[in-house]
Automatic annotation (TrEMBL):
Record protein name field: Luciferase-like monooxygenase
Pfam families: Bac_luciferase (PF00296)
A cellular component annotation (GO) from this entry: cytosol
Gene Ontology molecular functions: oxidoreductase activity, acting on paired donors, with incorporation or reduction of molecular oxygen
Domain of life: Bacteria
Assigned protein family: To bacterial alkanal monooxygenase alpha and beta chains.
Domain Luciferase-like: 13-241
Annotated InterPro entries: Bact_Lucif_Oxidored (IPR050766), CmoO-like (IPR019949), Luciferase-like_dom (IPR011251), Luciferase-like_sf (IPR036661)
Length: 331
């Protein structure tokens, strides 16, 4: 099995006792650490009306992280395009790519990245924008293209700049679109693994080559917690479980230290929902991760692995990435 690129997904979660400023500072440290380890890219995700997530102004944070690193690719995982005008996104990412050439990625999602009430505010009560997603992606591509040079509306400095566009997904709908448009496909198996295998199969079978990509390219995002021992990794993973239980019960709290699991996790229905969402999670020592992820990569045939790591302690989080790198380097 050939080695594949490893990348990082960051939401700049605010830990218990921390602030948005400390979360952003930690995100920069993670990016610098991932770069030193040889990770290929780091993506930031757009979320809104979430008190303990500091990545709402995604384009701004991408620029900050790119400016604090030297060569790792930095991008969006993703920009929720129905929340924005394609022209504005073209201008923002054209600017980023002008500042940091050949380092910026533009991952696009259809979901709002928030609750429905906040989505209505973002979209100015036009909730039909999600249905225009395919056309908006095409419009975005046109703004980046030199073919738009004779149009009345043009995007500067985006025009003629190469910013790779990705389709993000958590269902089979996105797979059909990515295949039809001949774009690379990133699947959010870290929180919605149920349709992962079906989606990548659809994508591969229906892929049509494009000017950006001549064959299918699949990236899977999964949860990973690495530690010196399986027991320590299981303990650190409790922070992740607590976070997901908070999402399910709508009791969101800052990223908490590891510890006893909440009582709500003992409710069968809630536990089943959490376990289903965490089905693509891998935790353990270097040897355990090597075995688990090696099997996952071989079974799915993915082209790139992106990992989300929710560990309260910043140094232990960085160590988890180091252990992951060692594990996959040994394959």
């Amino acid at each position: 099995m050939s080695k594949i690129p490893i990348s990082v997904l960051e939401l700049a979660p605010i830990p218990q006792g921390g602030t948005a400023a400390t979360a952003i500072e930690r995100t920069v440290e993670i990016a610098q650490h991932a770069e030193a380890l040889g990770f290929y890219r780091i993506w930031l995700a757009e979320h809104h009306n979430m008190e303990f997530i500091a990545s709402s102004a995604t384009s701004v944070l991408i620029g900050h992280v790119a400016g604090k690193t030297s060569h790792i690719r930095v991008g969006s995982g993703g920009i929720m395009l129905p929340n924005h005008s394609p022209l504005v996104i073209a201008e923002q990412f054209g600017t980023l790519a002008s500042m940091y050439p050949n380092r910026i990625d533009l991952g696009l999602g259809r979901a709002p990245g928030t609750d429905q009430q906040t989505a209505r505010v973002l979209r100015r009560d036009n909730m039909d924008t999600a249905y225009h997603f395919p056309k908006d992606v095409e419009q975005l591509q046109l703004y980046f293209s030199e073919e738009n040079s004779m149009a009345q509306v043009r995007a500067f400095p985006a025009e003629g700049i190469d910013v790779p566009i990705w389709i993000l997904g958590s269902s089979t709908d996105s797979a059909y679109l990515a295949a039809k448009m001949g774009l690379p496909y990133a699947f959010a198996a870290h929180f919605a693994p149920a349709q992962f295998r079906a989606a990548i199969d659809i994508y591969r079978k229906n892929f049509i080559p494009s000017s950006q990509l001549d064959k299918p390219y699949v990236m899977a995002c999964v949860n990973v917690v690495g530690a010196d021992t399986d027991e320590e990794a299981a303990f650190l993973r409790s922070s992740l479980i607590r976070m997901f239980v908070g999402i399910i019960t709508n009791r969101r709290v800052p990223l908490a230290p590891p510890g006893p699991l909440p009582e709500a996790y003992q409710i069968p229905e809630i536990r089943a929902m959490a376990d289903k969402m965490l089905a693509c999670s891998f935790y353990g020592s270097q040897e355990t991760l090597q075995h688990q992820l090696g099997n996952f990569i071989e079974e799915t045939g993915i082209d790139e692995l992106m990992v989300a790591t929710y560990i309260f302690d910043g140094e232990k989080k960085k160590k988890s990435y180091s252990i992951l790198k060692q594990a996959l380097s040994s394959l």
